[in-house]
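Students often ask why we bother predicting the structure of a whole assembly rather than each chain alone. The short answer is interfaces. A chain on its own may look different once its partners are present, and contacts between molecules only exist in the joint model. In this exercise we take two input lines together and write out one structure for the complete complex. Read the inputs first and try to guess which parts will touch.
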Amino acid sequence: MKKAKVGIGIIGLGVVAGQVARVLLEKGEDLSRQVGCQLVIRRIKVLEEDLKRPLAGEIDRKLFVTSDDDLFNDPEIDIIVEAIGGENPAFAYLKRALDGGRHVVTSNKEVIAKHGTALGKLAAEHSVSLRYEGSVGGGIPLISRFQYDLVANRINGIYAIINGTTNYILSRMAREGIDFDVALKNAQALGYAEANPANDIEGIDAVYKLAILATLAFQTPVSPEDVYREGISRLGSRDFQYACELGFAIKLLAIAKSSDGRVEARVHPVLIPENLLLAKVDGVYNAILVRGDLVGDVLFYGEGAGANPTASAVVADIVAAARAIMGGNAITSVPALATPSGNKIKPISQIETRYYLRMTVTDDAGVLAQIARVLGDHRISISQVIQKTNDDTAKTAEIVIMTHPARGDSMQTALDEFGRLGVVKEVSNFIRVEEIGSQP
Amino acid sequence: MKKAKVGIGIIGLGVVAGQVARVLLEKGEDLSRQVGCQLVIRRIKVLEEDLKRPLAGEIDRKLFVTSDDDLFNDPEIDIIVEAIGGENPAFAYLKRALDGGRHVVTSNKEVIAKHGTALGKLAAEHSVSLRYEGSVGGGIPLISRFQYDLVANRINGIYAIINGTTNYILSRMAREGIDFDVALKNAQALGYAEANPANDIEGIDAVYKLAILATLAFQTPVSPEDVYREGISRLGSRDFQYACELGFAIKLLAIAKSSDGRVEARVHPVLIPENLLLAKVDGVYNAILVRGDLVGDVLFYGEGAGANPTASAVVADIVAAARAIMGGNAITSVPALATPSGNKIKPISQIETRYYLRMTVTDDAGVLAQIARVLGDHRISISQVIQKTNDDTAKTAEIVIMTHPARGDSMQTALDEFGRLGVVKEVSNFIRVEEIGSQP
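Now the answer. The structure tokens for the assembled complex follow.
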């Protein structure tokens, strides 16, 4: 017999959870019609301080519980929605929900990136679904694409702008020629960056999201520790100026590729050709380019965060879980894989990219010969050298070198040797260059 | 008991059908593992001439049948894939398949645009699924978005570049300053436009696709006849030059909006602000912007046609149908709606947009006053007037007028009156302007 009602328990009443509750209450009738059964919020597990939020006043107080047991012991709850964020206690909540045979919906990127494979196995053991569309890219439909729409493809690569804060900062630096610190302050003043911005500007948030996407795309567990990471704080306004002159934009990209049975995954600033669509994604928006062997390049673009977009994804997951309950079948969204990932990850030292180098050197004849020799010793070819500015007082010059593809370890050794070369006063920056290839 | 095999029948061996067969044969094992049962091609219904195609040599000849009955009477076929295109006999095939209780997968935009609602009802009656992800945007995941990922949203608008041929032609006209005829010939030489290009350049192909998207987005049947249509052949190189000077790009957009319970749907050239991401989509690519009340603006971009991208979508649909068969539940992708659409469609005459007008007028004082009076009589305000070129011999001048928003019927009447105004030698072009609003 089909159920007439699907019961929902929500953990949290923060920005996302509150909006999810509001959408379910406001659009419940329409959604119920589409699912073919009533979607009923049974309990909202809150902290005492949540009850002071303005939203709390809009919701029937009888739904609120402050004890975990009151939520988990309600036999009429079929789906548990977690939207408190962070690793703990969210992870414990999700395990308890799955162990209790509840379908789980979460938008928690950290817990999925770190424990998604384990949670996916737990879900499979209990024949329930684990869904987390909201964990990457807000409401942009992404997660399910890999198991559904792109299922016939071998995925070769992902190139993604998946952190709105950093993309906003980089967009302003590019457009206005301002320095990182100024752009960060602007972003903080507008609420696009947090008071402690490390999670965003150091690329940690993007690492979580890339680990999730790469795990799905390549059907190999990729953990946050497997992802190489560099933040954006060392980018200077001059780098944007020179990149622009060379026909490139600077973006913080999350890149994952698969070849020869090995996966590479990295988050760092890159120069990309300015004519690519990805280069034109400005502000707090996200854009995720997925390259498949059949579909070619598809790009998904939209708001990557925020209460409404994330609620859009979370409610879609709730509806999908409800349909699975109604239809009697549940598909877990995480491929439950037994193989450990370690040996399948290609370390950054072995990854080949082109490089942009900006350095200050003494303004003498023969300097370039010495630099070229160091690069040549490590089989790094130069594709372009530009002398940018001279400082006549200090008798130094700033030069920019664009290399041909070189391994990470070769470049690292060359950079170390530059430090010992008397003529190199400073390596001001080195940034990887990604051509990305065919459109976009 | 779960089935161990899902049988597939394919109608056609053309570009798409052939690639679908090839993908199923090459990737069958991997796909079967993901579905949890074997996907087996049982029969491929071909015409005699199909057997001469090179692809036919790669496929076991025992699969080929030339009689319809040999396909439809095979009791082990669960899913029928139609990829012959065109309205007939495809429509009859799809009806027969659904009537026989087979799940149907098609990439046929014409048949779905014209008969999707009827076919959806038939599918529902027989408790089977009708899927057509490949009918719009090649492999770009679109169709299922409305019923799944965006289900919590009220969709307010769709703005789409969904015909690669016309976008290629317009991109070349914009970049190279060439005329339409030249750009069309180039497109034909490269195989991007057909020898008889009417279906593309007159917007017919885009109308089919928009009718499908609007039906899904607004849950109201929108037929091809409900969609207002203008092609691109009357665009001149000067329009591109002037649009560029004014900060606009010219695109053939498929636009659908819903407000106050009425739907507007139209395909015509538009000026859009050049800073929008949509304006930067060049070449044969497609981009579909969907605006939802929660998700905001999401944009999907990729190759809109071609054997591989379309096969990506068709095989994904086959896998989805197979999963539904395995799980015992089928969700039809077309909302089966009983309400006729007629009265819900907003006619073009009532639709308000800004306009770009290019006209040749006599080079006299007082001309502009006469033009402004005609526009004013119909409550059309001018936002900008630019005198472009003078022809001293003919004593004429070319002017460009940008208006504020005006109703379609008001503008049509004003254009008629210009024809009777002695000072207006020619209205060379008028193009609607869409601001589209918030990013992108």
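Check your guess against this: Confidence is low (pLDDT under 50) at residues 332-342 of chain B.
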